[in-house]
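Reopening: structure tokens for the S-adenosylmethionine complex, inputs below.
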Amino acid sequence: MQHLISPIAYVSSPYTQKFGIPRQPNLVPQAKIIIELNPEFSEASVRGLTDFDYIWVHFIFHDAIDEGWAQMVRPPRLGGKQKKGVFATRSPHRPNHLGLSLLKLEKIETHKTVQLFCSGADLLNGTPVIDIKPYIPFVEAKTNARSGFAHAAPELLSVIWQPENLADKLDKDLQLLIEQSIAQDPRPAYQNIPEREYVMRIADKEVHFVIQERIANIIKLVEINN
Ligand code: SAM
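Re-run output (same inputs, fresh job):
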């Protein structure tokens, strides 16, 4: 049986490239996105949803489709050294390229379209959303459940700005988003090249940083003019 699935909404996210996006939701509370429903969905379609703090967002890993999928993948959490079955991971490289993120629903606004404001996102700008459902803790929260190779949040890096005044002119929310995102250690699994300069695009900035030991040094900000 075949069933055609089409997006019901699209994501506006400060993450405009895959490098640097948190590897799971809620790791970067400052990662705020807007999910804009397609015009055929009215305010009625989300009536009652603001009574829930969290929503399940089903989406398509649209920027991984061309990369295909594999039976076994190397989760970054295992340092890229060990393989696990694709269905034992949250990898974007899976047969139907479907993703699932639990996001905090901050508010809903309706103007010409319905917009869901969420935080703690791990989604790329332009991500197509295929469904939204309320999170029901008494059914879904299993705090003592075993969780394989992903048993705790990864250890954070310390983040510093050098020169210290580099962030002075930055909007404080954006500064926090940059710091929280880089603290996640976006380097490819266990890459440890102290002299390497990494560049992450976030909102309208290109953020240049190096990582030595467990300290990330943000050394340059470049405005992106689209
Ligand atoms: N929470 C989701 C899940 O478990 O299905 C996503 C987990 S996946 C490991 C998160 C990563 O997917 C992000 O770090 C980012 O690199 C990538 N990603 C996010 N949105 C994407 C998109 N639309 N297309 C391709 N990759 C995406």
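Helices lie at 137-140, 172-183. The CA atoms of residues 135 and 141 lie 9 Å apart. Marking as resolved unless the reporter disagrees.
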